[in-house]
């Protein structure tokens, strides 16, 4: 079996999504660091791996992929017998439904809040308070739907942890270190789910990569 190659940065949320999937599956991998500050993702040789100039890029032998959710689904399906079963064949429609919810309802709002509350201060930029207020209101509406769902099952896709939950980890972790965490904590089922998935050993290993 070839060692998987991930081209990216451990501070990139999309790269984190791929890394935590690989670690959950217990697979060998090489993280090939792409220096975002130096713009390495916008020029060769990286641009040949991802023509959109965004991390991550992924290689498994001759196969090359560059969208994080496509990569996680490939890993979960192609290495289904390894590590944590991250897909539920029995409840596939429900799992896929909540994967779509994460991509189209959760992340668009969470990414704005992450940019305003975490990354702007990191880069010495001023947070837009109006944008934070607007997107916190949107997030509250989204999480009301999550609260109802998580009152019916332990995880979004059913009773087992799947990609539907895993895909939330990067921005969930990001926001739980900001005042926005109050929106999660005020919803008991969402709060319990958040604490549960953030406590996974695989996620701790991803966070540890940021220290090196």
Tell me briefly what this model is:
The protein has 2 domains: 4-85, Glutaredoxin; 91-204, Up-down Bundle (Glutathione S-transferase Yfyf (Class Pi), Chain A, domain 2), CATH 1.20.1050.10. It has 212 residues and is α+β, with helices and mostly antiparallel strands.
Report what the structure shows.
The chain has 212 residues and is α+β, with helices and mostly antiparallel strands. The protein has two domains: 4-85, Glutaredoxin (3-Layer(aba) Sandwich), CATH 3.40.30.10; 91-204, Up-down Bundle (Glutathione S-transferase Yfyf (Class Pi), Chain A, domain 2). It has helices spanning 13-25, 46-49, 68-78, 92-122, 129-150, 163-166, 169-175, 181-185, 188-198, 201-209; strands at 4-8, 29-33, 57-60, 63-65. Strands 2-1-3-4 form a four-stranded mixed beta sheet, covered by helices on one side. This is glutathione transferase. Its EC number is 2.5.1.18.
Topology overview:
Elements: E1 4-8, H1 13-25, E2 29-33, H2 46-49, E3 57-60, E4 63-65, H3 68-78, H4 92-122, H5 129-150, H6 163-166, H7 169-175, H8 181-185, H9 188-198, H10 201-209
Parallel strand pairs: 1-2
Antiparallel strand pairs: 1-3, 3-4
Helix pairs in contact: 1-3, 1-10, 4-5, 4-7, 5-9
Domain GST C-terminal: 88-212
InterPro entries: Glutathione-S-Trfase_C-like, Glutathione-S-Trfase_C_sf, Glutathione_S-Trfase, Glutathione_S-Trfase_N, GST_C, GST_Phi_C, Thioredoxin-like_sf
Protein name: glutathione transferase
């Amino acid at each position: 079996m070839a060692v998987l190659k991930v081209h990216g940065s451990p501070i990139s949320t999309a790269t984190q999504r791929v890394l935590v999937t690989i670690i959950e599956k217990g697979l060998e991998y090489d993280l090939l660091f792409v220096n975002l500050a130096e713009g390495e993702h916008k020029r060769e040789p990286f641009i040949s791996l991802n023509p959109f100039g965004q991390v991550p890029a992924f290689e498994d032998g001759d196969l090359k992929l560059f969208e994080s959710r496509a990569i996680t689904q490939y890993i979960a399906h192609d290495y289904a017998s390894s590590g944590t079963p991250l897909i539920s064949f029995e409840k596939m429609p429900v799992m896929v439904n909540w994967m779509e919810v994460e991509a189209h309802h959760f992340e668009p709002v969470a990414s704005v809040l992450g940019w305003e509350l975490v990354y702007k201060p990191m880069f010495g930029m001023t947070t837009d308070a109006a944008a934070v207020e607007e997107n916190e209101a949107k997030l509250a509406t989204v999480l009301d739907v999550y609260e109802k769902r998580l009152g019916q099952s332990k995880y979004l896709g059913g009773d087992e942890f799947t990609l539907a939950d895993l895909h939330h980890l990067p921005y969930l972790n990001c926001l739980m270190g900001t005042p926005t965490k109050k929106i999660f904590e005020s919803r008991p089922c969402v709060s319990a789910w958040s604490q549960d998935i953030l406590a996974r050993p695989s996620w701790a290993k991803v966070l540890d990569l940021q220290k090196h």
